[in-house]
Design a protein that fits this description.
The complex is a heterodimer of chains A (263) and B (305).
Chain A: H1 3-17, H2 34-56, H3 58-79, H4 94-100, H5 108-124, E1 148-152, E2 157-163, H6 165-173, E3 183-195, E4 198-204, H7 206-216, H8 221-231, H9 237-251, E5 254-259
Antiparallel strand pairs in A: 1-5, 2-3, 3-4
Helix pairs in contact in A: 2-3, 4-5, 5-6, 7-8, 8-9
Chain B: H1 11-14, E1 29-32, H2 38-44, E2 51-54, H3 64-75, E3 78-81, H4 95-108, E4 113-116, H5 137-154, E5 159-161, H6 176-187, E6 190-194, H7 195-205, H8 209-215, E7 221-226, E8 230-231, E9 236-237, H9 246-259, E10 263-266, H10 275-292, H11 297-304
Parallel strand pairs in B: 1-2, 1-10, 2-3, 3-4, 4-5, 5-6, 6-7, 7-10
Antiparallel strand pairs in B: 8-9
Helix pairs in contact in B: 5-6, 8-9, 9-10
Classes of the chains: A alpha+beta (263), B alpha/beta (305).
């Protein structure tokens, strides 16, 4: 290892772990000791990354308050040092961290709230894609409908929340007192997407969530309707499927539709 | 005397091949583009000559940031300014990052691409800070070769900025300005002269900022940054969260006298005020330059006509 590389390793280790080895190679300034001057880098490291978490998770910050959020943030910084040159991606691991690390894992509302904020952030700057219009559906003959396959918009994503995080999110967003955290008997099925430039989310009924997930996997409309028939009234399955599809298209959740070649 | 010029040429120095490229144009008096001002800029077309954008803020898949950037690029000259190139890092080059930068440049068609003379991490970690280097011949050889690699990859000469530093290393063999001058001469990169950073580093390390200014080759400087800082008594921290202070305005006058007409911009990154407040500072950069420098040819033409 070159002397330059060794010195950079020492400098970085001093910031990440508090090791003082590199101080032996740093000069006092005319007005200040080297410990204080090097301390500027140590302080800036943690505070900059926690600030990035605050920017990405403003409502989790509101929910926890300054002190608890900063404590959590510094724990995350220590557990998951940034590995991407772009600060935009630093907070990506926060939901998983909150789901697995003590004491946060004892409060599943935190991981869910972070997951919802992450999904909305990801929708905000997700890739562009065409938005499927209702008029496109008119070009298909009735006998083609069973073979239609759907492609979600690049910004669309699904997540399941085990808590009432969406209600907490909504209250915090409206500057209202959030409801007490609660674990749900059935997970809340959320669809996130971007409408023009604004990230949106809504809760899907279990049947619609099942159809969305299968449609996103490339299952054609005819099979989707057969699956719906096992969920509820078989006679109304095709109408319910067409209703969900209409909602997805008018909300801008889909980017393309095509007929499958074979089944 | 330039210490670096007395250093024996290393293998890297012998292989030097400065990328020949035309000096970037004078763009006038600009501002760093910040999301807080998107609506005001797109709705009002304020009198700003050009914008500098933080590259990483737009190295994204899609969405509003890139859509706004496209509209800004239709109306104003734009330069790209990165914070993660980590040109002085001893870690292997990050080609994924460089490809992202190149892709954004293809979209923006910037007048130039800049970053900082610093490193941001090693061993797969990124500290998201502009970390200092020792001014040694070993470091100079390393950075020269990295600049050449990046310039080859991007197909253009890059622009590098002097950063604010809080520490100096006891193994430095030359001054920061000697290092910058040699780096520019050997690699062909241009220089972004951050006047506030010179002021901050000079105070922190106890030297005269004019010595720094006089040590930079005038023909290599293509951009000025002007920014505010936080004074801690025994040292200054480069926070970019205050208006430009009077001492830095004085140094700007001296910089114009030495470097001439250089594209200048106000860089504010935190505690961001309404656009009008920053426009006052942009206008001041323009007024001072017009007072200190001889008028441009077109102005002479108007007077003659």
């Amino acid at each position: 290892m070159s002397d330059f590389a060794r010195q950079q390793a020492d400098f970085q280790r001093g910031i990440l772990t508090g090791d003082d080895t590199v101080l032996a190679e740093i000069l006092d300034s005319p007005r200040e000791k080297r410990e204080t001057l090097y301390g500027v880098y140590r302080y800036a490291y943690g505070s900059r990354l926690v600030e990035a978490l605050r920017n990405d998770h403003g409502l989790l910050h509101s929910y926890l308050g300054d002190e608890t959020f900063d404590e959590m943030g510094h724990a995350y910084v220590k557990a998951r040092p940034s590995e991407d040159p772009n600060l935009r991606w630093f907070s990506q691991g926060l939901p998983e961290f909150l789901r697995s690390a003590e004491p946060y894992c004892n409060h599943p509302i935190l991981a869910d709230l972070a997951a919802l904020e992450k999904a909305l952030n990801d929708a905000f700057d997700a890739a562009e894609g065409p938005v499927l219009e209702l008029t496109a559906m008119a070009s298909f003959a009735p006998e083609q409908w069973n073979d239609l396959k759907f492609q979600p918009h690049p910004s669309a994503a699904r997540l399941d929340l085990s808590t009432n995080a969406s209600a907490v999110w909504m209250a915090l967003k409206n500057d209202e007192t959030p409801p007490d955290a609660a674990t749900l008997e059935e997970p809340s099925r959320i669809l996130v997407w971007r409408q023009d430039t604004t990230p949106m989310f809504r809760e899907l009924p279990p049947e619609e969530a099942m159809m969305w997930d299968e449609a996103a996997n490339g299952i054609p409309f005819g099979v989707l309707c057969e699956m719906l028939a096992t969920y509820d009234d078989p006679d109304g399955a095709a109408a319910r499927g067409a209703g969900y599809l209409h909602g997805w298209i008018t909300s801008g959740n889909l980017t393309a539709v095509s007929t499958s070649v074979s089944r | 005397m330039n210490v670096a010029s007395r250093l024996p040429n290393s293998p890297a120095a012998l292989a030097e091949r400065p990328l020949q490229s035309d000096k970037p144009p004078f763009l006038g008096f600009g501002l760093g583009l910040r999301a807080q001002h998107y609506d005001e800029i797109l709705g009002g077309s304020p009198p700003i000559d050009w914008f500098e954008v933080i590259s990483e803020n737009y190295m994204l898949p899609g969405g509003q940031p890139l859509r706004v950037l496209d509209r800004i690029c239709e109306r104003y000259p734009v330069v790209m300014h990165g914070v993660s190139l980590s040109i002085a890092s001893t870690a292997p080059p990050n080609f994924e990052y460089l490809q992202g930068l190149k892709d954004l440049a293809r979209r923006v068609e910037p007048k130039w691409i800049s970053d900082h003379l610093c490193w941001t991490g090693v061993h797969g970690k990124n500290l998201h800070d502009l970390l200092p280097i020792p001014y040694t011949s070993e470091a100079l050889d390393h950075v020269v070769s990295r600049v050449q690699l990046v310039q080859d990859f991007l197909g253009r000469a890059i622009v590098l900025e002097n950063v604010s530093t809080y520490v100096q290393f006891n193994n430095s063999e030359m001054t920061e300005w000697e290092f910058l001058a040699e780096l520019s001469r050997r690699s062909g990169c241009w220089l972004l002269f951050d006047i506030n950073n010179v002021y901050v580093s000079a105070f922190n390390h106890g030297y005269d900022p004019m010595t720094f200014l006089d040590g930079i080759p005038a023909d290599r400087v293509v951009q000025f940054h002007m920014a505010g800082h936080s004074h801690m008594g025994t040292h200054i921290i480069d926070t970019h969260d205050h208006p430009v202070c009077e001492d830095v305005w004085d140094l700007y006058v001296a910089a114009i006298k030495r470097f001439g007409r250089v594209s200048t911009m106000i860089e504010r990154d935190d505690n961001i005020p309404p656009l009008d407040e920053l426009l006052v500072e942009v206008n001041r950069t323009r007024e001072i330059a017009e007072r200190v420098l001889p008028p441009l040819g077109k102005n002479l033409g108007k007077q003659a006509g």
